[in-house]
Amino acid sequence: MTADGVTDAVESITPTELHARIDSDEDAFLHDVRSTADFEAWYIDGPTVEVVNCPHF
Asked: For the chain, how many structural domains are there in total?
């Protein structure tokens, strides 16, 4: 928790951990900040994966 009382709810995991979660049908949320073109060329998906692309550059 930060000094202003905000909780940091963003979890970082390794690619190996993400792969294991997807393979075991756990829910996964991915916030992809790559360009739209890069995102459209390749992205992670699956029945338990939610992906949001918000280009940051």
From this structure: 1
